Amino acid sequence: MKIVREVSLISVGNFEESNDWSIIRAEIRDAISLIVHPPGTSSFTINPTKHGNGVKPIKDACTIALRDKFGWSLETSITYATRSPGKVDATKVIDNYLFALEWETGNISSSHRAVNKLCLGLLRGVFLGAVLVLPSRKLYPYLTDRIGNYEELEPYFDIWRPVSIEEGFLAIIVIEHDRLDENVPKITKGTDGRALV
Predict the structure, then answer these.
(1) 98 close to 91: Cβ distance less than 8 angstroms
(2) Are the C-beta atoms of residues 171 and 8 closer than 8 Å to each other?
(3) Average pLDDT for residues 91-108, to the nearest whole number?
(4) What does DSSP assign to residue 91?
(5) Please, which residues have CB within 8 angstroms of residue 19's CB and are 6 or more apart in sequence?
């Protein structure tokens, strides 16, 4: 699988220039590049059936690689004061803070909630940095119907950019298939993410 765009949505302080971000970005890039389909190949080829491929197995492949190769924690419970916005797909501890990664598996409303959750973590000082991974518009038609995607979310970036924080970083990473082939099997919802790494 390939990354086609990386957008720094919020960058306050010097985290974006830090060694911590260099390491984390390399780990995320590596985990995404390890996602292959069909299993056992060296690239990510998707069956171009409209809405024919599940998203969760693709996300699982990335988060499993982050955990197994780089020691990230998965499905981390987060609490902001007395309320919990739910779990975060993957986190890594940096000093006394967390770096969070969310991989979009829901619709565009879910994408908005994911960015809001990450922004709230920055506002509350729980996250030092965060990344949301989204499919591109080119990948979008072949995934679960109405999956959130970069091109639909991008017009709203100006809402989140002015978030008032003392320090923090939020990036959007956009992913895409390497090739299309109607002869490869579809990625079904029951596919084990481990098979795609």
Answers:
(1) yes
(2) yes
(3) 92
(4) E
(5) none
Residues near 158 by beta carbon (within 8 Å), at least 6 away in sequence: none
Q: What stretches of 71-142 show up as alpha helix (H) in DSSP?
A: 108-123
Helix (H, G, I), strand (E, B) or coil at 16: helix
Total domains present in the chain: 1
The neighbour count for residue 146, using CB atoms within 10 Å, is: 14
Q: Is the pLDDT of residue 48 over 90?
A: yes
Angle formed by the axes of helices 56-70 and 19-33, nearest 10°: 130
Name the residue range of residue 156's domain: 2-196
CA atoms of 27 and 44, how far apart (whole Å): 18
Can you give the CATH number for the domain in which 177 is found? 3.40.91.20
Average pLDDT over residues 56-81: 92
Q: Per the confidence metrics, is the pTM higher than 0.85?
A: yes
> Could you read off the pLDDT of 128-152 as tens digits, one per residue?
999 999 999 999 999 988 888 899 9
Given strand 127-135, what is the order of strands in its sheet? 2-12, 168-176, 127-135, 97-103, 83-94, 73-80
Residues with catalytic annotation? 104
Q: What sections of the chain are H helices per DSSP?
A: 19-33, 56-70, 108-123, 150-153, 157-160
Compute and round to an integer the Cα radius of gyration of the chain.
16
Residue 23 contacts residue 99 (beta carbons within 8 Å) = no
